[in-house]
């Protein structure tokens, strides 16, 4: 009797545990099927592998198998490599000095008009470098008004921008806003209590800035130097327009010559070797920056208002010098671009009788412009939409879920941002024949997605990482699945940032040159390539007119992108 009762109780307990642990029709815990989040994560991993790992791995494999390393130490390649390295290092150092000085002036001194200064000083970041190069030709080119007047007065030009010094100068002009942004962000994180303590101890404001603030800025200075040097190492627009007339050849212009002319045997293997070297250099710089970042220290933030450095009697002088510098490198190139667009030919005096709209009309109606605009708009729109979807998914998963591979997925998605565009172009150029995309515009689209998806990932991850998970937890408690909670709450919160990132990708792609000119195929001319071809063909004023139009449209679009998150 007792045994029967025990068996009955045991059976009841087992059935109770069965009802409690697993619902009817559900799989056992050990055999749980993948849910929507797991499937989405797998698809995003496959996309990152296809867009990042496969192209870059193919470049490394082809470079290793080609055995062309000895070519890097011979002739044109060695000269171009030295030129690229020197121009990248010098421009990065100059950009860090200029950007840091401006950041300190705007954030730590009582300089008048700081807000207007900041907006103007950031404007070179919004202008494509090759457009800036064309604009500066109107200021310091051989037929510029300044050089013509100086030649008449003193028998020779003041300074001709063509050559290596002009390349370094323009790289600094278009890179210092990056250093300025990085240093400004670091300045805001430095607690002002340390400066106040130094001031109480008898130090002057300048000494507190030099002995306290500047040493704490070293990590930011190193990061901005690394980022700018890697970016400038393979820039194509400025060296091609400013350097080539004086035979200042860099790796990017050399690769372009190899691809277009086929002056070497097995050009893909040679180009892949150059791309692999640049990739190794970029990754080494990234690793050094990560190692340095681990040695940084975190300081508690302070709510006290920073005490600005009084400029005293030199306030007016510093303001005038800053105004002169900022206006010279921001407004003057745009005015030069406008004047070139309204004149019939280079060197023609700027008078009312000589002004004409023929260049603008020719730039808008030219066949190459129409073809380039159509292709650029199509590729930029597709790149923006695809990057928007991928960036929204990756940014949401890595910030709103708990998984061991979140960091790896995020790092892989943003890795191309630290890789020169030349390497990405070479990677897709090598892989194109194997996947049937050679000589098609879709090859440029793939390169755009690889290069710009990080923009959307960072735009989405930044606001989501600072938002609590309480809303998703409430949705899960109400019975929503993990995927439903992410879609209905996290994705909806991130849509404004994703739209902003999508617009930014489209605007960046429509003005891009390095990827397009290296991956150019018949019938796939872009706006950047159209301007480059006009410049190379000697139609300088028409190129200036088209550059001016693209700059105005781009600045208006970037203004919309900045307002869209609201």
TrEMBL record:
Subcellular location: Cell inner membrane; Cell membrane
Membrane topology: Multi-pass membrane protein
All copies of domain ABC transmembrane type-1, residue ranges: 81-292, 373-561
GO CC terms, sorted: plasma membrane
Compositionally biased tracts (Polar residues): 1-10
Gene3D superfamilies on file: MetI-like
UniProt cross-references to PROSITE patterns, sorted A to Z: ABC_TM1
Keyword flag Transmembrane helix: yes
Main localization of the protein described in the UniProt heading: membrane
Region (Disordered): 1-35
Transmembrane segments: 42-65, 85-105, 117-139, 159-187, 208-230, 270-292, 316-338, 377-399, 411-430, 442-464, 544-562
InterPro entries: MetI-like, MetI-like_sf
SUPFAM superfamilies: MetI-like (SSF161098)
Pfam families reported for this sequence: BPD_transp_1
GO biological process: transmembrane transport
Keywords: Cell inner membrane, Cell membrane, Membrane, Transmembrane, Transmembrane helix, Transport
Family: Belongs to the binding-protein-dependent transport system permease family.
Name of protein: Iron(III) transport system permease protein
Provenance organism: Glaciihabitans tibetensis
């Amino acid at each position: 009797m007792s045994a029967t009762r025990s068996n009955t109780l045991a059976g009841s307990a087992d059935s109770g545990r069965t009802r409690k642990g697993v619902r009817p029709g559900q799989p056992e815990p050990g055999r749980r099927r993948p849910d929507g989040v797991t499937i989405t994560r797998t698809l995003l991993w496959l996309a990152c592998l296809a867009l990042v790992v496969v192209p870059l791995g193919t470049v490394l494999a082809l470079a290793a198998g080609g055995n062309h390393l000895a070519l890097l130490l011979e002739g044109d390649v060695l000269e171009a490599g030295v030129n690229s390295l020197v121009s990248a290092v010098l421009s990065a150092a100059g950009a860090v000095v200029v950007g840091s000085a401006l950041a300190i002036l705007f954030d730590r001194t009582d300089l008048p008009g700081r807000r207007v200064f900041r907006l103007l000083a950031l404007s070179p970041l919004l202008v494509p470098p090759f457009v800036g190069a064309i604009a500066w030709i109107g200021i310091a080119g051989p037929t510029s008004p300044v050089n013509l007047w100086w030649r008449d007065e003193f028998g020779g030009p003041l300074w001709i921008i063509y050559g290596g010094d002009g390349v370094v100068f323009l790289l600094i002009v278009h890179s210092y806003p990056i250093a300025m942004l990085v240093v400004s962000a670091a300045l805001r994180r430095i607690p002002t209590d340390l400066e106040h303590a130094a001031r109480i101890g008898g130090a002057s404001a300048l000494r507190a800035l030099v002995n306290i603030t500047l040493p704490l800025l070293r990590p930011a200075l190193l990061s901005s130097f690394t980022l700018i040097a890697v970016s400038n190492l393979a820039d194509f627009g400025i060296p091609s327009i400013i350097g080539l007339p004086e035979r200042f050849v860099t790796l990017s212009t050399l690769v372009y010559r190899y691809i277009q002319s086929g002056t070497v045997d097995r050009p893909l293997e040679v180009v892949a070797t150059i791309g692999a070297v640049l990739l190794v250099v970029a990754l080494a710089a990234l690793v050094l920056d990560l190692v340095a970042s681990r040695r940084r220290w975190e300081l508690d933030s302070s709510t006290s208002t920073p005490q600005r450095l009084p400029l005293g009697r030199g306030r007016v002088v510093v303001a005038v010098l800053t105004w002169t510098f900022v206006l010279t490198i921001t407004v003057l190139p745009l005015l030069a671009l406008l004047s070139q667009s309204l004149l019939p030919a280079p060197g023609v005096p700027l008078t009312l009788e000589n002004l004409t709209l023929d260049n603008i009309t020719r730039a808008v109606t030219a066949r190459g412009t129409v073809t380039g605009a159509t292709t650029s708009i199509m590729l930029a729109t597709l790149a923006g939409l695809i990057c928007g979807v991928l960036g929204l998914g990756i940014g949401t998963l890595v910030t709103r879920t708990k998984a061991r591979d979140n960091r790896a997925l995020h790092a892989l998605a943003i890795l191309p941002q630290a890789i020169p565009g030349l390497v990405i172009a070479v990677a897709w150029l090598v892989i194109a024949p194997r996947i049937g995309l050679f000589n098609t515009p879709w090859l440029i689209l793939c390169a755009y997605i690889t290069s710009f998806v990080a923009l959307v990932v960072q735009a989405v991850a930044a606001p989501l990482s600072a938002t609590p998970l309480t809303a998703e937890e409430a949705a899960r408690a109400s019975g929503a699945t993990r995927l439903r909670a992410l879609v209905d709450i996290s994705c909806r919160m991130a849509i404004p940032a994703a739209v902003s990132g999508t617009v930014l990708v489209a605007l960046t792609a429509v003005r891009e040159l390095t990827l397009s000119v290296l991956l150019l195929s018949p019938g796939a001319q872009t706006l950047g390539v159209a301007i480059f071809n006009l410049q190379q063909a000697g139609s300088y004023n028409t190129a200036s007119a088209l550059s001016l139009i693209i700059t105005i449209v781009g600045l208006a679009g970037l203004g919309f992108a900045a307002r869209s998150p609201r």
